[in-house]
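Handout, tutorial session.
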Amino acid sequence: MYKTGFTILAFILLSCKDSSVNNQTQNNDKIFFETEYINSAWGFSYHGIMVDQGGDIYSYNPAKDNISLLYHTDGTYTEQELQSKYQHAKTYLRRVAEDSLKWSHDLAAKVAINDFSDTTRVGADMGSLEYSVYIYRPLIAKYQKIIFKAEGDFTFFNKSESAIALVTWLKKL
């Protein structure tokens, strides 16, 4: 189980770094921010916090309902897939201030999609903590996941100043 989980996690981290959808086709009104933790060492852990487009912050825990990891190699997801992911053990936490939400949406629009640091192996059995955004792309009618930073067994980050600022913001939520 450990090697299989580790292999899957490594594949996810390494394949999420590239994106084929350009950032010119986005809709700032349809954005979800997310901090997501995944670990398959010593059991399966999968949970996170999401900020919806209205600024409401929720925790979610698909693993609690025995739901498997939602992952697409192209990094795009339908609205139904995201709603299904976030409905599990969903708990309202609080609301982001309107000015902070506008600031975060404006920054998300400026994130360079394919400008990442090298991936570094940091440890083992730590899992992965990802800070990311899902931006709706009308041309393909799906949300595109853009990772700002991944920490854990493997670490990399988006070198865009906007992505770095958004990681700091997400860590404070």
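The second record follows below. Compare its token runs with those of the first.
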Amino acid sequence: MKPELLQALHTIHSADGWVSLGTVSKGGGPHVTPVMMGVNGDVLLFSLTGKQKKRNIERDQRVCVALSRAEDLAHVVVWGDMQLRHDAEAQALWDGLIEGAFGAEGLAARRRTLSLEGTSLGVMTPRRYRIYKVS
């Protein structure tokens, strides 16, 4: 991930904050929902529930995520591809995402075993981005 994108994400996003994730619906239109996001190396991580957005990602991996600050209109928009993961490494990453947002007690209260039917870890590889007024 480019350093300027990483810096902008760390500046505008908090671990317990929500972001807007856009997927491509069956009809080709946008499907936008709030989700939790984390940053790990060169990828963005998402806690994903809800059947529709996961079906959309299975069919078309192109996604877009938007983060914003209301007080000054600063925002970051990232476009990329997302994979749904449920393996042991994904479980460890998901646990880290939730613990980072809510602490160890919060993780204990929210612990889930990843599965396609339940909660999935979305792993997004950024392809392009736009940063506006983030400093």
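Points raised in discussion: The mean pLDDT is 91.
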